[in-house]
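Re: How this chain folds, sequence and tokenised backbone to follow
How to read it: Take the token row as a discrete description of the fold.
Start of record: The labelled sequence and token lines come straight after this line.
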Amino acid sequence: MDQYDELYKVVLVGDPGVGKTNLLAYFTATEEEMAMDAETNASKIFSAVRKPTIGVEFGTKIITHPNGKRIKAQIWDTAGQERYRAITSSHYRRAAGALVVYDVTSKATFENAQCHWLKELRNSADSNSTLLSCLMLVGNKIDLVAADNASTIVPPEDHEAAAKAEGVMAMRASAKTGENVVAAFEQLIIEVYNQDKNRTAPVATESATPLVDLNAKVPTKKKSCCNA
């Protein structure tokens, strides 16, 4: 059994078809599966015809924090269809972080990521959860960006502006080629760990009682004329 120091739950949310399952598959894949297929120019784990996620599915992976701690991430891939909303939203409450995924070739999924998915996560999160400060906006399918479809894609500057306005982390990636996929997951998971440890670290407080110098001379109180 793999040893780890911390365990956190992370959720993947977004519209159907934005590539959440392929992102998870790549991140949890073996090095052999991550390798590129020369014929398809895609990682061996990538599938362009994956069946829609029913309810939720999950995978796990252990990463190492820069401080040496081993962090196990339990990553839940949630269905984007409306009929599974009651099932998937229940998983947000115990989540420590989330990747909000959209398709960079679909402005509608970009709008939904901001107006629906981020809002739903924030409404479902516990008030003391790291989820509120550990959210990442991920633009997937950057391998499809080309000059001939420039009018339909979400440009990088719009992505960055939206992430800044929402106060979340940002990453553009490709589940097909693997570009930035591992970086996105690891950056989020490490931030979850950092936020969790900062939240639970003891806070140093100043003593309310002033220190007394035991060697100092105590002045003798003079008698008043009334006591003479």
Remarks:
- The domain at 6-202 is CATH 3.40.50.300 (Rossmann fold).
